[in-house]
Write a structure and sequence with these properties.
extended; 161 residues; five-stranded mixed β-barrel; 2 helices; OB fold (Dihydrolipoamide Acetyltransferase, E2P); binds zinc ion; 7% helix; mainly beta; 3 domains
């Protein structure tokens, strides 16, 4: 819990950082940011999700496999990429439970974010379904595609077995 200092007493909107104890300015204005990002170069990724497929790009020159898909290869700087479908299974590497949610996820209960290494090679960062106390790194997971509370489609990790 952040400890608020009184604006009347101190003259400034201050809070005490719970970890360091340092005084911090807590701006009185709230920012509401809505951004747009072009997905023109990775459209097949979204078309794939709609069909229940996890698509990504692989460099045709050096064979590097990316997830999420990339338009250009960071390794050899080639733009000659091909689309491939990933098998939607892998092994859980790490997870963390998010109790302090950003305002945009305030409608969610605490949720779990995890990283899994897909059998095809790349790592995937996604929300993890299930009780995080019963899930351990090394456990097999499957990537499932569904709709979030906000209505849009997204992939998530689901423990197997
Ligand atoms: Zn490459």
């Amino acid at each position: 819990m952040e400890q608020k200092k009184s604006i009347e007493e101190f003259g400034f909107p201050l809070v005490v950082d719970e970890k360091s104890g340092a005084l911090q300015w807590l701006d009185v204005r709230e920012l509401n940011i809505r951004y747009t990002i072009s997905i023109e170069n990775i459209k097949p990724f979204y078309e794939g999700l709609r069909q229940g497929k996890l698509l990504t790009t692989r460099c045709k020159k050096c064979n590097e496999l990316y997830f999420p898909p990339q338009k250009d290869c960071y390794k050899c700087f080639s733009s000659d990429m091909e689309w491939i479908e990933l098998k939607r299974e892998g092994t859980l590497e790490t997870l963390t439970v998010i109790f302090v949610r950003p305002p945009s996820f305030s409608m969610y209960d605490p949720y779990t974010v995890a990283v899994a290494k897909l059998d095809d090679g790349p790592k995937i960062l996604a929300w993890l379904k299930g009780d995080p106390r019963k899930i351990r790194p090394g456990q097999r997971v499957r990537v499932e595609i569904g709709r979030r509370k906000e209505g849009y489609m997204m992939y998530e990790l689901v423990p197997l077995g």
